[in-house]
Amino acid sequence: MKILKLGTINFEALDHKVKVVVVDDLRAFSRSKGFQGSHSACATQFDGDGESLIAFRPFPSAGIIAHESWHAIYLMLTDAGAALDNEIVAYHLGHLVDKIMDKLHAHIKEMKEMDICNCSKCQAKAKGKSTKSSKRRKTNGRTTR
Question: How far is it, in rounded angstroms, from Cα 74 to Cα 17?
Answer without folding.
Answer: 13
